[in-house]
Write a structure and sequence with these properties.
There is one protein chain. With 398 residues, the protein is mainly α. It has a single domain, classed as MFS general substrate transporter like domains (Growth Hormone, Chain: A), CATH 1.20.1250. The protein has helices at 11-40, 45-70, 77-92, 100-127, 134-162, 167-173, 175-188, 202-207, 211-224, 231-245, 247-276, 281-301, 306-334, 340-369, 371-390. The longest helix has 30 residues, at 11-40.
Length: 398
């Protein structure tokens, strides 16, 4: 059966979705616990921003290299399996950390492995469905990914309660779902036959990417330079709620708000994908970027109550769902399938550089000048990115 005639929900789509679910379950246990764990080590918001920023930056270069080289391979699947195993082992190694730089090293190693697998996973997914189903396929993958991100923080709370807040045992447990992710890739994903691209230089490969794709990257990069890690929202909630809740309850509330964010992220991902298959993708993505700007304005100007924080985390979930689903499906639409690995790798690298810049800058501005200045920086870039993406023509390559 041809790809166009096949059902879009097939073994490969399901396998990639399950791998995303298990992997996110694994590293979101660690992510949810990391701010509190770092607090026990006496670490500031600046350190948290550095850990997230350096890790995302290293991941971005791994994504670029992986995208470039795997387009030249007849089989991409082994790279994906290795990436999932590497992320699982590195995340579990948090259990041995007793200094901030140990956490940085483990996180960076895990995110490097994550970077290796990301463009490969996306290329495998795009190859498994027809172009008119890109939105639904990527939306389902994002929804399952975020289902893992819901289970992860809840698992973290449960494990901490059952173990008397033993962070090291908690990090060890992350190995189980992490290795399950690699297992489902091995057994469920069927890689389609493909002809590797000719061996040409990296620069020539870049020049082969379409002009509209490059304009798309400019908008993504501008938005990404303000798109800070949402672990900072957990820290924000913890700080703002501590005076009325106490530190322990405020930290738990921050994790639960993050779970709420992930519920909206998961539930809206498929909706965003459905919209992507029916409306101009750039306009839907621009709306998502705009929501990010609205979220930061709420942080800056509205009072620091629990209900305002609920609204902030809900908007955070919706805009991330739209951003990630639409960026992937628009990327797949703008670039020929033979260059999908390279295109997804470059997109991920631009996002990773943005994450590196945004997390470090927002963390530094927050520590030095306060919340308003830190998040105002993000708001400006969010709205600028939304404007540029709205002006981008959305059309499939001929």
């Amino acid at each position: 059966m041809s790809r166009r005639g096949a059902r879009w929900l097939n073994s490969t789509v399901l396998g990639i979705g399950l791998a995303s679910l298990f992997s996110d379950w694994s590293h979101e246990i660690a992510t949810a616990a990391m701010p509190a764990f770092l607090a026990t080590l006496g670490v500031s918001a600046g350190w948290l921003g550095t850990i997230e920023g350096v890790s995302d930056g290293l991941s971005s270069f791994a994504k670029m290299a992986s995208g470039f080289y795997t387009d030249k391979l007849a089989r991409r699947k082994p790279v994906a399996i290795a990436g999932y195993v590497g992320t699982a082992v590195a995340t579990a190694s948090f259990a041995f950390a007793d200094k901030a730089w140990h956490v940085l090293l483990a996180r960076a190693t895990g995110w490097f492995s994550r970077g290796l697998r990301t463009p490969v996973r996306k290329a495998l997914l795009a190859a498994a469905v027809a172009p008119e189903a890109y939105g639904r396929a990527f939306g389902l993958e994002r929804a399952m990914d975020t289902t893992g991100a819901i289970i992860g923080p809840l698992s973290a709370l449960l494990i901490l309660q059952l173990t008397g807040h033993n962070f090291r045992l908690l990090f060890g447990w992350t190995l189980v779902p992490g290795l399950l992710a690699a297992t489902v890739i091995l057994f469920l994903v069927n890689e389609r036959e493909r002809t590797p691209v000719p061996h040409i230089s990296f620069g020539e490969r870049l020049r082969l990417l379409p002009h509209n794709y490059r304009k798309f990257l400019t908008a993504v990069g501008l938005f990404g330079a303000g798109d800070f890690s949402h672990t900072m929202l957990i820290l924000l909630a913890t700080q703002r709620l501590t005076p009325s809740f106490g530190l322990a309850r405020a930290a738990s509330a921050g994790v639960l708000l993050y779970v709420l964010r992930n519920v909206f992220y998961a539930s809206f991902s498929f909706v965003a994908g459905w919209l992507a298959d029916r409306f101009p993708k750039n306009q839907v993505l621009a709306a998502g970027y705009g929501l990010a700007g609205v979220m930061t304005l709420f942080i800056i100007f509205l009072p620091a109550s629990i209900w305002i924080l609920v609204l902030v985390f809900v908007l955070g979930g919706i805009y991330i769902a739209t951003e990630e689903t639409l960026e992937d499906s628009l990327c797949a639409e703008l670039v020929d399938t033979s260059h999908h690995g390279m295109a997804f790798g470059v997109l991920a690298t631009v996002n990773g550089i943005g994450d590196f810049v945004s997390s470090i800058v927002v963390g530094a501005l927050w520590s030095a000048f306060g919340i308003a200045i830190g998040f105002s920086y993000s708001a400006i870039l969010f709205f600028a990115g939304a404007l540029l993406i709205a002006l981008l023509p959305s059309n499939r390559p001929s």
